[in-house]
Amino acid sequence: MNSDQVEFRNVSFRYNDEQPWVLNNVSFSIKSDEWVAIIGHNGSGKSTIAKLINGLIFPDQGEIFVNGIKVTADTVWDVRKQVGMVFQNPDNQFVGTTVKDDVAFGLENRGVERSEMIKRINASLAAVRMSDYIMHEPHRLSGGQKQRVAIAGVLAVQPHLIILDEATAMLDPKGRTEILTTVYDVKQNHQLNLITITHDLNEIIHADRVIVMNNGEIWTETSPRALFMEEEGLREIGLDIPFIAKLANELNKQSLTLTKQPINQKELLDELWTFHLNK
Amino acid sequence: MDISFKQVSYIYQPNSPFEHQALKEIDFSIKSGTFVAIVGHTGSGKSTLIQHLNGLIRPTKGEINIGDFTLKANEKTANIKDLRRQVGVVFQYPEHQLFEETIEKDIGFGPKNFGVSDEEIKQRIPQVLEAVNLSPELLSRSPFDLSGGQMRRVAIAGVLAMEPRVLVLDEPTAGLDPKGQQEIMDMFKELHTRKQLTTILVTHSMEDALKYADYVIILDHGQKYMEGTPAEVFVQKEALQRVQLDMPEIIQFIQSFEQRFGLTLRYKGQSIEGLAQEINQLLKEEVRADG
Ligand SMILES: Nc1ncnc2c1ncn2[C@@H]1O[C@H](COP(=O)(O)OP(=O)(O)OP(=O)(O)O)[C@@H](O)[C@H]1O
Ligand SMILES: Nc1ncnc2c1ncn2[C@@H]1O[C@H](COP(=O)(O)OP(=O)(O)OP(=O)(O)O)[C@@H](O)[C@H]1O
Ligand SMILES: [Mg+2]
Ligand SMILES: [Mg+2]
């Protein structure tokens, strides 16, 4: 068996024969326990990767393995048991008429027994701070509240792999940090794999690795810190780097040389402090 | 158009177990030609507020004036269609405003509905496609066979094609890639200035509110919590944190820097390049003074 949780081997895909390839010979693997962020311009193929992992669509060429199982029409139900996915628009994924039913749905599907089910529903709604809305209709929530409920749905199931496809885009700044911390804690405690697809540059800082997509191909695969040194290149493919990294690069350019690439405010201030003492 | 809210309250599903007051006695006025940002925590009432602006919902109590139009409880607004022609709304989730078979029909739907001629629509389409940076090759495709960010661009193009006088934008950059976020915000600002629009932007990006808005209104649990210019509002760390918000990153950094080094830097709209120069100079002077 394979210790990689997700593996893409030379995967190509297009939505129909008249259109160009949406993914072109893409290969990568994600180890158990890893948090990988995927970034890339609009239409670069990120959501397509997520749909392929979950067997919503199948590759035209190449193979995909999830926890050692090759994803095919025959194995798709086994694969989906291992994967919890939150889509870009939560409206497309609500099935229950109340928030409670909606979170329960995934658990019922997996045959979780009733008392355990209730425990998990309550815990996951508390984790995303939506306990007060348990009897509300998911469609009658605010944009950010919908995203919180969708995330509670996958947390309750505790799958081996969680894929968040721009799942925090509508949250307020504090809420975004809180939810990511919650998901991260669950990941650590239950040894999950986490794939986050995002346009929020600050969201990738804590990932173990970043895969950068460009026009259906992998542009690079690296650590966040190393990535932030490629400011020019990222700009050329429609991306950017976070504020702190930009400021650090600008200081370096102006010959205030820092010893390493800072990824948060504290690291940059520490670097400046050292500079100021050593001068 | 001048916009004013007088003691506006809104209640969802009144007289049911789910009755929920989403807006509480909101008062403010916006002068024609202003670029206003509305910020606030998840569920604070932003989308509810902006849905009043084109008469999609009407106040449960209070009164709203938009130019010559009046919105009140239990009172039909005269010429509501006219209001909708002049107030263009980009909704929070683009899927909620896409429904035609092709992207071309979708973008043309608004103007056609308001009686713009087919010829005129044909002229507007390439202009708005360029504004949102979408390839004309996509025109014959279904708007649902697109990536999230591409759908967002189509939804924005459809509103621009109506050439509204008031532009209402509910998280318009969610789903756009970083370059797209900046380009589209710059495009809105340019259009706002060139056509003297009144623009209302709902956003979770304090950075965008700081950069683009003349005025900021902060909501908290359905109430107006604070209002003022970005420079006034966004330096108030504790007040912002109390309602789940924070200062824009550049101001956060400047304040932390000042604390750590005991030096004065102050936010004055400087670019990152300008900020780096100031830091460089300050630290080098410090070194000289110490040495
Ligand atoms: N259902 C579909 N039918 C046809 N083409 C599609 C469909 N969904 C996506 N595409 C096309 O496939 C390409 C990749 O789309 P994908 O959704 O994977 O992009 P993405 O990287 O997730 O972009 P975004 O950041 O905008 O969400 C795009 O060019 C898009 O137009
Ligand atoms: N259709 C509805 N029926 C009942 N309650 C609703 C409905 N839509 C929103 N609400 C409630 O009204 C409150 C305000 O919602 P609104 O959508 O205005 O918030 P928001 O500030 O736009 O939040 P977000 O940043 O999450 O989009 C929330 O508590 C929400 O649950
Ligand atoms: Mg996508
Ligand atoms: Mg909203």
Overview of this protein structure:
The complex is a heterodimer of chains A (279) and B (291). With 279 residues, chain A is an alpha/beta fold. Helix content of chain A is 39%, strand content 21%. In chain A, the strands form 2 sheets. In chain A, strands 6-7-8-3-9-10 form a 6-stranded mixed sheet, sandwiched between helices. In chain A, strand 9 and strand 10 (217-222) form a beta hairpin. In chain A, helix 3 runs parallel beside helix 5 (143-157) and helix 4 packs across helix 5 (143-157). Chain B has 291 residues and is of the alpha/beta class. Chain B is built from 11 helices and 10 strands. In chain B, the strands form 2 sheets. A 6-stranded mixed sheet of chain B has the order 6-7-8-3-9-10. Chain B has a 4-stranded antiparallel sheet with strand order 2-1-4-5, with no helix packed on it. In chain B, helix 4 (118-132) packs across helix 5 (148-160). The longest helix of chain B has 19 residues, at 272-290. Chains A and B meet through helix 5, helix 6, helix 9 and helix 10 of A and helix 5, helix 6, helix 10 and helix 11 of B. The complex binds adenosine-5'-triphosphate (2 copies) and magnesium ion (MG) (2 copies).
Features:
heterodimer, A: 279 residues, alpha/beta, 6-stranded mixed beta sheet, 4-stranded antiparallel beta sheet, 10 helices, 39% helix, globular, B: 291 residues, 40% helix, 22% strand, binds adenosine-5'-triphosphate, binds magnesium ion
Give a topology summary:
The complex is a heterodimer of chains A (279) and B (291).
Chain A: E1 4-13, E2 23-31, E3 35-40, H1 46-53, E4 61-66, E5 69-70, H2 76-82, E6 83-86, H3 99-109, H4 114-127, H5 143-157, E7 161-165, H6 173-190, E8 193-197, E9 209-214, E10 217-222, H7 224-227, H8 231-236, H9 243-253, H10 265-278
Parallel strand pairs in A: 3-8, 3-9, 6-7, 7-8
Antiparallel strand pairs in A: 1-2, 1-4, 4-5, 9-10
Helix pairs in contact in A: 3-5, 4-5
Chain B: E1 3-12, E2 20-30, E3 35-40, H1 46-51, E4 61-66, E5 69-72, H2 80-86, E6 87-90, H3 103-113, H4 118-132, H5 148-160, E7 166-170, H6 178-194, E8 198-202, H7 206-212, E9 215-220, E10 223-228, H8 230-233, H9 237-241, H10 249-261, H11 272-290
Helix pairs in contact in B: 3-4, 3-5, 4-5
The structure holds adenosine-5'-triphosphate (2 copies) and magnesium ion (2 copies).
One adenosine-5'-triphosphate sits between chains B (12-13, 20, 22, 40, 42-48, 92) and A (140-145, 170).
